[in-house]
C-alpha cells in the first residue's frame, strides 16, 4: 500500500502546485517503474479520491498542524492518508503504518515521526475535529468557496445536488454505433457475457460496473465508444441531414464528430488547434471506420471558402460540469478564469457565425454549469447579431432518471454530467 500512497502523494503535490492530473499522474507512475498494476491502480484511485475530497481532508490537516508544512511532499502524503482514513475501506492501523513507511523513504528525518503523530492524533480526535468543521462549507462540500457561492446564486434550488453529484464516481457510459448495432441488440450481447447495463435514450448504455476500455466488447471494432450521455445529446440537437456540410469546431478528441457520422452520412470537417489532439480525432475515426476532413487551425480564426449547413461549436470552457471525471479542475480553476474563457468563447462564436450558411444552424455547447459561459454568453451574442435566432431544443428522449434541463442547461445528475446547449439559426 505504501507505494500506492507514494504515487498518489507525488501526483497530488504536483496538482496542488498547478499541474493537471492527466500529466501529473503518469509522471508519478514513471518514478516507480517496478510497481505492480495493483499498486499503480491503487495510486491512481488515491490520487483521484484525495483531490475529490481535498477541501475536506485539507481542513482536517490544517487543524492537526500547528503551522502549514513547507515540505509539499510530506504534506501531500498526509492528505492522501487522511483521505484513506476518512473514505477508504482500508484498516486504520494499516493506513497509518504504511504512511509512516512511505514517509521513511522521504529525505527529512523528522517525516516518519510527524506523519505517525499527526495521523494517530487524527484518530484520537476525529469526532471533535469533525464537529468543528460542520459549518465550514469548503470542508463539507470539498469545493472552493467562490465556486460554492456562485452555484448558490445561479442555482438556488439545485446547488447542493450539483456539488454532491460532482463528488461521486462518474458512470461508465457507452455510445452504440448506430451504423453497426442498436442499444437493445448490444445490451443483449453484454447480457450473454454477464455484463449488466441500463439502456438510456438514443444510443446510450451505462455499465452497472465499470470495466477497462480494452475489455469492453466491440470497442476495438468500433461497435461502441465511451461517451457521457450528456455529451451524446449534441449530435441529435444539431439536427443534421444526409450530405450536409458540417463543421465540428474544437473537435478533439472526436467523440461528437464520430457520433455525427454514425447518425448520418455527412461531409464533415473536424477542426482543432492542437496537432496532437487532432491525431486523436483521426485515431478515433479510424477505429469507427469513418471519414472526415481533418483541419488544423483555431476556431477563432479559421476560414473556409464554402459556408457550412451546420456547425458544432463545442467551445473551451471551465469544464465545471464534468468535475467528477476531472477532480483537479476544482482546485486548479480560479474565478478569474471564467472571464478569460468567456472572452475566448465570444471570439470563437463570432468567427464561426461567419462560416455558417444562411438558414444554417449552429449548436453552441459547453461542459460548464456557470451562467457566464452559457446563458449570458448566448444572450450577449444574440444582442450583437440580429440575424441569430435561438431555437427550442428537442431532446431525443427523456427516459433517463434525473434529467433536468433548464434553458439549455443540463444540470449534473447521476446518469450524466453537466452540459449547456443553445441552437442558433442564421436568418
Structure description:
With 427 residues, the protein is an alpha/beta fold. It folds into three domains: 2-142, Orthogonal Bundle (N-utilizing Substance Protein B Homolog, Chain A), CATH 1.10.940; 172-226, Alpha-Beta Plaits, CATH 3.30.70.1170; 229-426, Rossmann fold, CATH 3.40.50.150. Helix content is 47%, strand content 15%. The protein contains 17 helices and 13 strands. The protein has helices at 2-16, 21-30, 37-52, 54-64, 72-87, 92-104, 111-132, 137-141, 145-154, 159-166, 183-192, 229-237, 255-263, 275-287, 329-332, 335-355, 375-384; strands at 172-176, 197-199, 204-207, 224-226, 245-249, 267-272, 293-296, 308-314, 356-366, 388-391, 405-406, 409-410, 419-426. Strands 5, 6, 7, 8, 9, 10, 11, 12 and 13 form a nine-stranded mixed sheet that branches. Strands 2-3-1-4 form a four-stranded antiparallel sheet, covered by helices on one side. β5, α13 and β6 (267-272) form a beta-alpha-beta unit. The model is unreliable at 398-402 (pLDDT under 50).
Amino acid at each position: 500500500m505504501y507505494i500506492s500512497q507514494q504515487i498518489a502523494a507525488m501526483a497530488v503535490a504536483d496538482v496542488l502546485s498547478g499541474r493537471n492530473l492527466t500529466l501529473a499522474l503518469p509522471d508519478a507512475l514513471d518514478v516507480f517503474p517496478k510497481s505492480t498494476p495493483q499498486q499503480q491502480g491503487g495510486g491512481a484511485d488515491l490520487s483521484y479520491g484525495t483531490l475529490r475530497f481535498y477541501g475536506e481532508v485539507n481542513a482536517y490537516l490544517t487543524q492537526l498542524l500547528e503551522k502549514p508544512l513547507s515540505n509539499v511532499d510530506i504534506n501531500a502524503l498526509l492528505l492522501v492518508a487522511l483521505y484513506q482514513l476518512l473514505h477508504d475501506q482500508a484498516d486504520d492501523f494499516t493506513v497509518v503504518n504504511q504512511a509512516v513507511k512511505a514517509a521513511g523513504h522521504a529525505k527529512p528525518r523528522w517525516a516518519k515521526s510527524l506523519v505517525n503523530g499527526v495521523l494517530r492524533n487524527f484518530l484520537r480526535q476525529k469526532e471533535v475535529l469533525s464537529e468543528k468543521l460542520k459549518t465550514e462549507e469548503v470542508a463539507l462540500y470539498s469545493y472552493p468557496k467562490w465556486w460554492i457561492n456562485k452555484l448558490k446564486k445561479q442555482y438556488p434550488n439545485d446547488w447542493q445536488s450539483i456539488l454532491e453529484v460532482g463528488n461521486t464516481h462518474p458512470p461508465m457510459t457507452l455510445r452504440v454505433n448506430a451504423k453497426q448495432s442498436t442499444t437493445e441488440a448490444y445490451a443483449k450481447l453484454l447480457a450473454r457475457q454477464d455484463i449488466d447495463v441500463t439502456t438510456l435514450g438514443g444510443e446510450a448504455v451505462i455499465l452497472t460496473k465499470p470495466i477497462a476500455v480494452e475489455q469492453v466488447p466491440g470497442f476495438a471494432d468500433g461497435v461502441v465508444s465511451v461517451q457521457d450521455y450528456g455529451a451524446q445529446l449534441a449530435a441529435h440537437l444539431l439536427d443534421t441531414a444526409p450530405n450536409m456540410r458540417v463543421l465540428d469546431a474544437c473537435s478533439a478528441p472526436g467523440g461528437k464528430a464520430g457520433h455525427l457520422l454514425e447518425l448520418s452520412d455527412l461531409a464533415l470537417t473536424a477542426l482543432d488547434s492542437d496537432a496532437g489532439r487532432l491525431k486523436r480525432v483521426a485515431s478515433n475515426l479510424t477505429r469507427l471506420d469513418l471519414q472526415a476532413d481533418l483541419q488544423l487551425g483555431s476556431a477563432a480564426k479559421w476560414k473556409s471558402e464554402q459556408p457550412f449547413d451546420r456547425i458544432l461549436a463545442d467551445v473551451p470552457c471551465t469544464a465545471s460540469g464534468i468535475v467528477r471525471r476531472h477532480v483537479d479542475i476544482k482546485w486548479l480553476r480560479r474565478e478569474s478564469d471564467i472571464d478569460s474563457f468567456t472572452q475566448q468563447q465570444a471570439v470563437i462564436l463570432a468567427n464561426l457565425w461567419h462560416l455558417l450558411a444562411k438558414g444554417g444552424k449552429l449548436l453552441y455547447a459547453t461542459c460548464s454549469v456557470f451562467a457566464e459561459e452559457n446563458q449570458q454568453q448566448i444572450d450577449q451574442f444574440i444582442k450583437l447579431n440580429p440575424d441569430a435566432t435561438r431555437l427550442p431544443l428537442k431532446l431525443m428522449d427523456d427516459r433517463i432518471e434525473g434529467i433536468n434541463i433548464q434553458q439549455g442547461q443540463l444540470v449534473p445528475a447521476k446518469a450524466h454530467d453537466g452540459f449547456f446547449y443553445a441552437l442558433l439559426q442564421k436568418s
